[in-house]
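notes to self, project folder thing:

trying the whole complex as one job this time. last attempt i did each chain seperately and stitching them together was a nightmare. two parts in total, labels are on each line so i dont mix them up again. if this works i'll redo the older ones the same way
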Amino acid sequence: MSRSTALGLLLVAPALALVAALFLWPLGFSLIAAFTAGGEVSLAHFRKAFELYSTDIVFTLLIVGLSTVLIALVSIAVSGVLTLSETGWLVAVLKQLYRWPLFIPFIVAGQCMRTFLAKNGLMNNTFVSLGVLDPSQTVSLLDWRGIVITFVWKQAPFVILMLAGAMASLDRSTIEAARNLGASRLRSLIEIVLPQVGQTLLVALVLSFVTMLSVLSVPMMVAGSQPTMLTVDMAFRINAYGDYPTANALGVISYAMTAVAAWIYLRHNLKQQREAGL
Amino acid sequence: MTHKLAFSLALALGAALAAPAGAQTLNVATAGDQNMVDYIKDYLGPMFEKANPGVKVVAVGTGPGDSGSQKIYEKLAAQKAANTEKWDFDVIVAHQKMSGQMVSEGLLAKYRDRIETGKLVSSATAANALGTNVEGFVMPMFQSQTAIAYNPDMVKSVPGTYAELADWAKANPKKFGYNGIKGGMSGVAFATGWVYAFGGDADKLQKGPYDAATKGGWDNALVALKAFNQNAVITPGNAGTLDMLNRGEIAMGPVWVDMFYTWMNDGKLPPNMKLKLLAPGMPGQPMYYAVPARAAQADLAAKFIAMATSPQVQADGIVKKFNWYPGIDARHLEGKLDAATWKKLFTDLTPDDLSKNARPFPIAPYFNDILESYEKKVAN
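result (full assembly):
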């Protein structure tokens, strides 16, 4: 082993030790607890998890999936404006505004949405006082819609930050060529810009997907508990019954969901590397 | 030089630590939220110190909920296992479940018969903590109770029973809200009351003995609850129910009585809101004062509890300050409270209502069965 390799290993050792102690070790424990009962390998905890929480598993997947799609649309639209718009003030305002939610923790966002989205909350009251809505027409959004809105509001800026950055570093001549040949801005966004930043978009969306899957405060604060997301069920399993094995089984189910996201990402990554001849 | 300095520092530190011990320290450990610690530190402590010169009251908070009581239990159990002669806590304030366990493991002392106020207690929870006999070992500090809060402007004929409530909810869809069972205890209490009302023998659930087959008999009750939920709003948490009542989005919902009055005092609920205790009963729970079996200051501890459960302190501290129900029989408070406070606490729910329809939570194994059956048959 050369001197530099040894030094390199030494440098990464603390990081590796941290990952091992704080992630791999507890992960191992949680996997063992999920797959064993009374010292023997068993799927009993998974049977229980499906028996009690099958609706919540589907609900979680739908909420996070829908949020990811909406985040993608919002961020493409906003990044597109930031990159292609010729209206100077719009770009300036948008640039200033879009990052704000990044600095707000999920729990604060949850607390704000709880009063903002309620039937007689800030949003509906504003509509009513503007004469847009009649008080009898207002509806509460404090259910699955509230969770999706909070997630999109909170995660879209993160994706925009990465996506707009990637778009800004593109070779602008490709865009200008398209525009010169008469392509509309929308068309250049979809056919010229997006394909070049697809990789960045995918990475940002996968990261958002994983983040949203792990949020406890938002489903807890914004929506009632029926149905609810798996994080709430895990917390309840532990707080009400001290039942770690079933909570761990639920944890493994959410690892499985993240694993699907990671697999899509890796597959795409490999394909691109092959195409690039690497 | 450095040695000398360290030595004198240690000496000074030792003296500082030893000083209060010489002057009698009463260590009070309390589970529950910060308001419990403040109640002892800022209210009971100074009062007791004034009445007993030379005594210092030290309040220790161990955290909210059953896990706070769990920590007190762990400490006492460890000191018992280590065969320590004098244990660190003189007075503890704990929830029902762990108090029962501490009594059955011999961690607490029998003291209630020795104090004057012991005779003023009438509640069944003073003798029975979720199925464990705790007679003589505990004094209820307060009783907190769940009830249905409603807006009289929106509810003309107020349901008096669970069955009437179910009909009302059908006639007024989405006007009743509760927080399910994962968003706090007021929803848990409502669901438990539902099983008491429609699930068969409620007495057995509250007193035992436990029989694992009992839960099979709740199926009809839970199917009905699932149908009821179709007409109800599931709110986000105990505070979520109160919020929605405040904004007029729902007309009725289960709440903790103390939270209800505290919110109303803070102007966060309309002052015309009212409470109703549904028959055949909704659950509530006390917290207990108890003395560890080998408390260093056992006599002082009993004296402290006697003061804390005296009618005047119960009236001023428990009822007036925190809107809880007294731990001792409410009849002994009459005359100690100003008329307005008395009226407020006992107008909607009369002492008669409370003695008839205030129920304890079920014994621990039935409690878990109710929650899990709800998850399986109602929520999923």
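what i see at first glance: Chain A touches chain B at residues 51-56, 114-115, 118-121, 140, 142, 220-228, 232-233, 236, 239-241 (CB under 8 Å).
need to look closer tmrw
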